[in-house]
Design goal:
The chain has about 400 residues and is of the alpha/beta class. The chain has a single domain, classed as TIM Barrel (Alpha-Beta Barrel). The protein contains 15 helices and twelve strands. The strands form two sheets. The chain has an eight-stranded parallel beta barrel with strand order 1-2-3-4-7-8-9-12, surrounded by four helices. A four-stranded antiparallel β-sheet has the order 5-6-11-10. It is globular and about 60 Å long. The protein binds D-mannose. The site of D-mannose (DNO) has 12 residues, from strand 4.
């Protein structure tokens, strides 16, 4: 695999040089300062390339060009935004970057309730507490008819929890959920969040899926022409949130969208940490079946704390948690071999150690939540060890 590392640009407290020392071979980044819906210019892309090069690596993959709410709802300026998206692809191609990750989650990108939850060792992990989340939905956001989305006992538990919450806790929850996590395109105050949700009235799963397919019918041919690859990140967590539809939570979801625009440029960001929260997603089997279209892998592990889904979970160490990481990597390595035999140029699949717990000096560095230096270094080291073992000529997979 090609081991790359997410870098948020000059504001990132973990430098490109740190990434190189951690063993990363390249960088995945985005122009987070460019407003959603606006085309990326060649100059801005070059500037970021130079910033990455100054640290000794290359910018190899984009995560993400944000997809605007107008595109997702097909309202307002959506046509202009699609044109801007295509233009960004053209400028990236000119700069030699050919793989682009994106997501189609309405309103909220990834969502957690705790950004620095203390584990027994004193490490800090990201966590999603279902009861806190429901308490936020019912009592902070006060979403119309929200109680209908949850079983009665959960409503009661969440109501009790809310009654015991301090003002600080409520403010923190609102920030974590509404204001967005690193890499999210937009953040919202509570009022803005209500307005953003209102845009989705009348948009259910089918409509949103059709909007994604229409979007892909526009951008995939452009990517094809430019010899680029697009890869859709799954829903995190993989179920509907705040009454919003989610359409990339399961294998079938992906298959529907991949088949609808059946081109290699229409691909997958296989995020084990997102998809792995659902007990009904068999990740190694999903990798095997979606393999030819996987252009990027996010490798991280989660541990479910409650049965079924939706559920509470936290981000465990890369080799712990509910996902069989060795089986996932074995499936990715098998796909690389298949590609090599087929003569595909992309026979090395991009992967990044996704997230990491904050450990040791991470605890005082104050990097982006989920993106510490040492926690990710540890993850990468473990993942590389597995890959090297599995590909060893004498001891690896036959
Ligand atoms: C979280 C990330 C996501 C991801 C986007 C892709 O850590 O995996 O924010 O970058 O969903 O568009």
């Amino acid at each position: 695999m090609r081991h790359i590392w997410r870098w948020f640009g000059p504001i990132d407290k973990v430098s490109v040089r740190d990434a190189a020392q951690a063993g990363a071979e390249g960088i995945v980044s985005a122009l987070h300062h460019v407003p959603t819906g606006t085309a990326w210019t060649f100059e801005e892309i070059r500037k970021r390339q130079d910033e990455v090069r100054a640290g000794g690596l290359e910018w190899e993959l984009v995560e993400s060009i944000p997809v605007s709410e107008s595109i997702k709802t097909m309202t307002g300026d959506w046509k202009a935004h699609v044109e801007a998206w295509k233009e960004s692809l053209r400028q990236l191609a000119k700069a030699g970057i050919s793989t682009v990750c994106y997501n189609f989650m309405p309103v909220l990108d990834w969502t957690r309730t705790d950004l620095r939850w203390e584990t027994p060792s004193g490490a800090r992990a990201m966590r999603f507490d279902l009861v806190d989340f429901v308490a936020f939905d019912l009592h902070v956001l006060q979403r119309w008819n929200a109680t209908q989305d949850y079983p009665q006992d959960l409503v009661e538990t969440a109501t009790k929890r809310f009654a015991e919450m301090t003002g600080d806790k409520i403010a923190m929850l609102s920030r974590n959920i509404g204001a967005g996590l690193p890499g999210s395109a937009d953040g919202y105050s509570i009022d803005e969040l209500r307005t953003a949700l209102a845009r989705y009235e009348g948009i259910g799963v089918e409509k949103l899926r059709n909007n994604l397919i229409d979007f892909l019918s526009e951008v995939v041919p452009v990517a094809d022409e430019l010899d680029m690859r697009l890869c859709a990140h799954g829903d995190d967590p993989p179920w509907p949130l705040l009454g919003l539809p989610r359409i990339l939570s399961t294998e079938q979801d992906y298959v529907t969208v991949l088949d609808a625009v059946d081109r290699p440029a229409n691909g997958v960001t296989f995020c084990t940490g997102s998809l792995g929260v659902r007990p009904d997603n068999d990740l190694p089997a999903m990798v095997r079946r979606l393999a030819p279209r996987i252009h990027f892998a996010h490798l991280r592990n989660v541990r479910r704390e409650t049965p079924g889904f939706p559920c509470s979970f936290f981000e465990d160490q890369h080799l712990d948690g509910n996902t069989d990481m060795i089986a996932v990597i074995a499936a990715l390595v098998a796909e690389e071999r298949r590609r090599k035999a087929e003569g595909r140029r992309d026979d090395s699949i991009f992967m990044r150690p996704d997230h990491g717990q904050e450990i040791l000096e991470d605890l005082t560095r104050g990097a982006q939540p989920g993106y510490p230096a040492i926690g990710r270094l540890k993850g990468l080291a473990e993942l590389r060890g597995i890959e090297q073992t599995l590909t060893h000529p004498a001891y690896g997979l036959a």
